[in-house]
Amino acid sequence: MFHLRAEAPGDGPAIEQLLDRAFGPERRAKASYALRDGVPAVAELARVAVTADGGRLVGTVRYWPIAVGEDAALLLGPLGVEPARRGRGIGRALLRASLAAVRARAVLLVGDPAYYGPLGFAPAPPTTIMPGEDPARLLVDAAGPPPPAGTLRPWPAGARATPTGAAAAAE
Ligand SMILES: CC(C)(COP(=O)(O)OP(=O)(O)OC[C@H]1O[C@@H](n2cnc3c(N)ncnc32)[C@H](O)[C@@H]1OP(=O)(O)O)[C@@H](O)C(=O)NCCC(=O)NCCS
Q1: Strands (DSSP E) found in 46-137
Q2: With CB atoms 3.0 to 4.6 Å apart as the test, which of 6, 29, 47, 64 could cross-link to 75 if both were Cys?
C-alpha cells in the first residue's frame, strides 16, 4: 500500500536516489534534462508516493516550466517508481493527482506512448518540436490546452512560475 503527498523540501536526496534506480544514472544525459538544467521545478505540482507507514519514498513526479516558441508550457517528468513496487498503480496515481492541480497550461512529456497513451496523452503536433528526441515520444495531455507551436527551450532565467503551475514572464 502507498499514499501520495506533496513533495517536501527534505525529499530531494531520496528522489534523486530513486530516479537513479528507476532510470539509471545515465538519465542525466537525456535531452529533457537539458531543459531542466538550472531551472527550479514547479514546487506546487510535485508529488511523491510513500509507503503506507510513510517511511519510504517509492514514487516521484515533478514538472518544469518550459518555453515553447514565444509561449510557455509545462514539462511533466521525471515520473519514476521504485522498481520493486511497479505495477501497483503508483505511477498512474501520481500522474492523475498532479495533473489535477495544473491550470490552463499545456502539459508535454517525453515518454513511452504505450504507457502514457491509455492515461490520456496523445502525440504532440509536428509544429511542437523537442530537439534531440524521437518526435513520436513527445506527448501532450489531451485533456489540457494544445501545446504552443515552436521549439522547446529552457525557461528563461529571471522568469517566474505562478503557484498554479502557469508560467508567467517577469515584468
Ligand atoms: C513507467 C513507470 C513510472 C510506471 O510506474 P508503475 O507504478 O509501475 O505504473 P502503474 O502501476 O500505474 O501502471 C502499470 C501498468 O503500466 C504498464 N507499463 C509500464 N511501463 C510501460 C511501458 N513502458 N509501456 C507500456 N506499458 C507500460 C504496466 O505493464 C502495467 O500495466 P497493467 O496495469 O495492465 O498491468 C515505472 O515503470 C518507472 O518508473 N519506469 C522507469 C522509467 C521508464 O521506463 N519509463 C518509461 C515511460 S517514460
Answers
A1: 47-51, 57-68, 71-81, 107-110, 121-123, 128-129
A2: 64
Structure confidence at residue 20 (pLDDT):
97
Mutate to test the pocket of ligand 1, among 86, 90, 139 (most ligand atoms within 8 A of CB): 86
89 within ligand 1 shell (Cβ under 6 A): yes
Ligand 1 contact, 94 CB (< 6 A): no
Q: Could you tell me which residues are beta bridge partners of residue 72?
A: 67
Question: Beta strands 47-51 and 2-6: pairing type?
Answer: antiparallel
Q: Has residue 170 got a pLDDT over 50?
A: no
Q: Which CATH superfamily is domain 2-168 in?
A: Gcn5-related N-acetyltransferase (GNAT) (3.40.630.30)
**Rounded to the nearest whole angstrom, what is the distance from the C-alpha of residue 81 to the centroid of ligand 1?**
8
pLDDT averaged over every residue in the chain: 92
Task: Please give the share of the chain, as a percent, with pLDDT higher than 90.
Answer: 87
